[in-house]
């Protein structure tokens, strides 16, 4: 499998403020001309020991396309912890800074829960370096798999993205509502921001709004699509 800028591209899914329904940015989602399912692309990259190459190519191309130095909106990009640990990663970040792709300080890296973080102290050090470049951190799919509680306390991400499990039939589940309320209370106290993923119905959106969930994402609000389809994006 050959990984290069020519066979990858991105769809961008909008993220909205649920209070005023204003778009605050996008999540850039990797797509490939070779794989219809992005998860299979990542799985093949892992098998071929090319995950770092794929991850960094994805970040680089998304930033070049989005031109964040010219956009006032935020860009969220997925990244694996193993990529952050890689011995070449800091050189890669310096390259992004040199090319002025980080200059507006509106970039957030979403840490994937798929990988188990074995060295929390080292990850904390790397995150501190990223923050010096103006990059924020989000924990993705919180609640989907292993407990993220220790990581949230120790690493203090700027954003906590609740998995779509919590938004599905949210209007029918008092337990999900109660759990989201507790997370929101924690985040308000310690200045983290919650993003609720997977909002697909008006009823679930209304409950999220009633709970004062600050940010939301999902098919009801906007499906992933090419950036060129958003006519009002300032991307040069």
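^ structure tokens above, recovered residues below v
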């Amino acid at each position: 499998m050959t990984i290069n800028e020519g066979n990858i591209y991105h769809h961008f899914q909008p993220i909205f403020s649920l209070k005023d329904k204003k778009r605050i940015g996008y999540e850039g989602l990797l797509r490939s001309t070779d794989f219809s399912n992005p998860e299979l692309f990542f799985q093949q990259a892992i098998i071929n020991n090319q995950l770092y190459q794929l991850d960094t190519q994805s970040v680089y191309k998304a930033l070049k396309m989005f031109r964040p130095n010219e956009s006032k909106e935020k860009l969220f990009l997925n990244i694996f912890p193993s990529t952050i640990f890689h011995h070449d990663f800091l050189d890669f970040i310096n390259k992004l800074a040199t090319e002025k792709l980080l200059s507006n300080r509106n970039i957030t890296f979403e840490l994937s829960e798929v990988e188990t973080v074995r060295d929390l102290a080292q990850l904390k050090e790397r995150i501190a370096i990223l923050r010096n470049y103006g990059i924020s951190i989000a924990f993705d799919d919180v609640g989907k798999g292993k407990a993220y509680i220790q990581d949230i306390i120790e690493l203090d991400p700027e954003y906590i993205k609740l998995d779509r499990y919590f938004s599905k039939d949210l209007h029918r589940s008092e337990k999900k509502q109660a759990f989201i309320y507790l997370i929101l209370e924690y985040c308000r106290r310690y200045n983290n921001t919650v993003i609720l993923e997977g909002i697909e119905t008006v009823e679930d959106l209304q409950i999220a709004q009633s709970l004062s969930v600050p940010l939301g994402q999902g098919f009801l609000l906007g499906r992933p699509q090419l950036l060129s389809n958003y006519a009002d994006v300032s991307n040069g």
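Residues 12 and 70 are 17 Å apart (CA to CA).
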